[in-house]
Amino acid sequence: MMKRKYYYPSVTNVAQILLDRNYSDIEQIVRNRLKTAPQFIDQIELEAELKGHNGCVNCLEWGDNGRILASASDDYHVMLWDPFGHKQLYDLVTPHDGNIFSVKFLPKRNNSVLATGAGDCKTYVFDIHRGNDSPIRKCICHKQRIKRLATHPKHMHLYWSSAEDGKVLQHDMRASHSCRSNDANVLIDLRNHINEMPEIKCIAINPQRPEMMAIGANDCYARLYDRRMLSLMKLNNDIELKLNENHTDNTPRDGCVQYYCPGHLSRNEETVYSIFNQKAITYLSFSPDGGELLVNMGSEQIYLYDLNHPKEPKFLQLPKMIEPINGTNGTTHVKGEEKTKHKLPSDVEQMKKEGNSFLEREKYLQAIQQYTLAIRKAQEKDCSILYLNRATALMKRNWYGDVYAAVRDCHRALRLDPHYVKAHFRLARALLKLGQLQDASICLAELMKRFPSYAKNHGVLMLDKDIEAAIEKQKQRQRERTQEAETDQFSENELVSINLEINAMSQFFNVFSYKAWRAAALDYKDRFVGHCNTKTDIKEANYFGDSNYIVAGSDDGNFFIWERDSGMIASIYHADELIVNCVQPHPYICMLATSGIDHEVRLWSPQSIENTPIKHRLDVVEGTVNENQTRMLSDPFDSLAPDQAMCRTS
Asked: What is the CA radius of gyration of the chain?
């Protein structure tokens, strides 16, 4: 094949050709990696407090060039700050009469045009270069509180609003809008296909693929829509209008949305819809490369979903047994009997022993961290025992999602060593604890079949008895529910009314599609634990740097920094007297802006230890994390003073 020739008529030397090349992308990659180098992360400390608001600061937004920081508050003000000079640049007094929950700069407008959304159900757009605070656009189409706005740099004329009325509206600055004209501006209406009262809490647009829109609502499912498959609908203020024969079905088409949910929640409807433990997604964000979705779930943990290589939930998927092998890597397998020697490098073996010591002393957080470090060091070379030990620590710790994480670790151990009897046994116990009784029974039966010498083992027999008792208890509950249903008496008129209502609702809601979308929900890749998210529904979680760290606020007044790859806590900083809701990383340098119940905005950056002693970084990680997880299991109102309780849904 003939190679294509390139001609440089005006340049004759190679050096000039190289100098003319565009290295901006490489420079950006290097800058992103350096801005969160471990040396910088270890020296983060409070740089400045920006004072001016007279209420809780509910949202922060960096300008495109990182030279301006916007903040909005319960005081109905939007303030623009110089983060480097630590001074206020502009105080915008908005016409809102409800708490402002979101502020966004419209892209490519020189950081002068911004949009706001608030608890008064209104969105405004302002141009601060006009010299007055009058909005240039107003929308009152939402009927419940607006929680988040979204923009995208490729769509400078568009912004989107999400609200607790279950709707996402698309706003086009190029077109005039009158709310009374009933314009077609509804992009998503969850009420069209959910047989409940949906409230949208957050929204995000993929930075690399603007057609991908993610929303989080008052359940455990993150929804990822393809906007190309959605059409704008007219706003119908009266639900009954949807039931008349002239109404056009605006239910989203199959294939337009993909659901994501942790496996232990998607398979347990009772947990998802427990009155005392309602889940809600308070924030979601895409990774800079657009390949991941980070989700902060209220009354739960932070979950990361891999969009390019998603996986279905895994509960029981035992590997096939390998034929008898002898003398390979010091491992001997005999059919029906386990004779497995797990050889580890000396340094990894030492980490394992330290993890075992923590486990024996019931220091589960440290044990899990040691096993994680050992797994990383071993690089999955004959480390099935490390996964199994970590699964044991997870089950004993028993925080939200720990048992399911243990199930996943058992599967990893079995993938590395299909003859690992203890991994079969622990998987069956984890499935029992998770409430997957049929899977637990099948798993234990398979253990007895594969390893007959263990069929009469005392531990195996006791686990079998526990599974049978749990299954019988489940059957008893089902019988009681059936009897209760049979004893409920309805009059003939009541039955007719109920049937009419069911028929009407079945026409209105595409329940079957919704159930199918739930059933097809994909599982998470990684999770991050330690913070507490129960008191507010605006708590954020974001990528920090080149996706190598995760940051989020917490109900204990701290913000957390996790290592992206290991999921371990890198550091915790005290940043608010009560609650940290917002943690927004600077787009270009190692700097964070935080806010919460306090009226101040705080800036954090690496500081010289000699000049600025580390005062806000917490030394006691275990105690802080344990308290947070205990608080997650309790009623959030129990720990609130009367004047603070109203901030729970701020």
From this structure: 28
58-147 fold: Lipocalin (2.40.128)
Same CATH fold, 332-474 and 58-147?
A: no
- C-alpha triplet 86, 91, 95: angle, nearest 5°: 150
Q: How many CA atoms lie within 13 A of 463 on its CB side?
A: 27
For 402, the 3-state DSSP assignment is helix
Residue type, 396: K
Mean pLDDT, the chain, whole residue set: 85
Task: Output the 3-class SS for 42-106.
Answer: CCEEEEEEECCCCCCEEEEEECCCCCCEEEEECCCEEEEEECCCCEEEEEEECCCCCCEEEEEEC
Question: pLDDT by residue (tens digit) across 466-502?
Answer: 999 999 999 999 888 887 766 665 555 665 565 555 4
Contact 257, 223 (CB under 8 A): yes
**Residue entry with tokens 């002068």:** 112
Sign of CA dihedral 181, 121, 287, 297: negative
- Tokens, residue 102: 């979101």
Judging by beta carbons within 10 Å of its beta carbon (0-12, 13-18, 19+), is residue 524 exposed, middle or buried? buried
Give the span between the Cα atoms of 194 and 197, in whole angstroms.
Answer: 8
Provide the CATH topology of domain 332-474. Answer: 1.25.40
SS3 call for 624 = helix
Per the CB < 8 A criterion, the answer to whether 644 and 637 are in contact is no
Residue 399 tokens read as 């925080």
pLDDT of 281-324, one tens digit each?
Answer: 999 999 999 999 999 999 999 999 999 999 999 999 888 876 55
Across 460-498, b (16+ Cβ under 10 Å) vs e yields: beebbebbeebeeeeeeeeeeeeeeeeeeeeeeeeeeee
DSSP 203: E
Cα separation values, 245 from 189, 240, 242, 248, Å: 19, 11, 8, 8
| All structural domains of the chain with their residue ranges | 26-51+529-650, 58-147, 332-474
Asked if the model's pLDDT at residue 333 lies above 70, the reply is no
Cβ neighbours for 407, distance < 8 A, ≥ 6 positions apart: 314, 315, 391, 427, 430, 431, 434
Count other Cβ atoms within 10 Å, centred on residue 314.
Answer: 13
Residue linked to tokens 């004993």: 396
Sign of torsion over alpha carbons 541, 543, 548, 553: negative
